[in-house]
Amino acid sequence: MKFTRLLIPALAALAFAGQSFAAEKLRVGYLRVMDDAQAIAAYEGGFYEKHGLDVELVEFQSGTDLIKAIVGGQLDTGVLGFTNAASWSSRGADLKVVGGAQHGFHAIVVREDAGIETVADLKGKTLASQKEGSTADTVLRGVVLKDAGLGPKDVNVLGVSPQVAVQSLVGSRVEAAFLFEPQASIAKLVAPVKQIYEVGQVWPFPCMVVITSGEVLKERKDAVWKSLDAQNDAIELLENQPDEAAKLIASYFIAEPTLKTLDGKEVPREQVISDAIKTQTFSPILTPEEIKRMQEIADIMQAQGSLKTRDGSPFDVTQIVDLEWQETRGL
User: Fold this and answer.
1) I need a labelling partner for 122 at 20 to 30 A (CA). Which of 2, 10, 29, 281 fits?
2) pLDDT exceeds 70 at position 128
3) Cα 228 to Cα 223: distance, rounded to the nearest angstrom
4) Which domains occur in the chain, in start order?
5) DSSP 3-state assignment of 176?
């Protein structure tokens, strides 16, 4: 923040002296998961440029790191899990959820030799998932395992990246994994696994949302809204032309042109990603039902102890949800 305060007067002085500057970049953060495909496709498809934005797309390894960058002013917006905004807001951070992204696809895939047919069969097993406190972890522990009658100590949950989770399945280091796309699809191709559960079919929820800071929304609302317009265009492409969208984003998820499957076949990475896109439900808006679901997630977080308000009162998600963009656009 000190750097920002020193830099702004310097820029103002140069501008006053007759210097010209390019439009300020909008820094958009993302995670390398299918849930963030709208941010990637908007960048690779030229949709940000179409809406007059100069965007810097910044990759993060976790939602925790991404939200820290937004809070710290190093990032303008990001596509990430709602729980990050709730957790930081409960501690006083000025954050706003301004749009939707993806609707909660998370599959449990299990090794075929593990003898697991249902979620209840995970008792005593090791499952790879996301880091503790993440949206995926919150839903896994607070909904999926709980509904199967499993307590906190019944399943050994390892918090790792999706890529490490797939590798752990291949190497028999875990019996199961809770994965989003495209890692769920990749796991089925490269490891002897099967899918036994998908939370979106049982308990749909807005997994990823677009988050910004209150300060950025106030100072750069036009740019934030244009970025949402661009991502809306990208969502339309993902939903209606998955094969074309896959051509834009496949290299972000699979480095080589083809993926070698368990039986030795070579599958084009665009095919893998197109198939993964088709499993998803993308949406730029947040409905009243989804906001209610976000409140349920916040309540679960408070029950788990990962979200604590200063006075101990229930956390109200409506205080951080700003629907002005979607209302203005008539969505």
Assistant:
1) 281
2) yes
3) 9
4) 2-11+23-103+206-253+281-328 (3.40.190.10), 107-202 (3.40.190.10)
5) strand
**C-alpha count within 13 angstroms, C-beta hemisphere, residue 224:** 26
Q: What are phi and psi of 33, to 5 degrees?
A: -135, 160
Mean pLDDT of 117-124: 98
- For residue 183, which amino acid is it? Q
Instruction: Give the pLDDT score at 131.
Output: 87
What are the contacts of 318-324 at 24+ separation with CB within 8 A? 318/291, 319/89, 320/85, 320/86, 320/89, 320/95, 320/96, 320/97, 321/96, 321/97, 321/286, 321/291, 321/294, 322/96, 322/97, 322/98, 322/217, 323/98, 323/285, 323/286, 324/98
Terminal-residue alpha carbon distance, the chain: 36
> Six-digit token pair at 49?
């440029």
Q: Which residues contact 75 (CB under 8 A, 6 or more apart)?
A: 27, 28, 29, 58, 66, 69
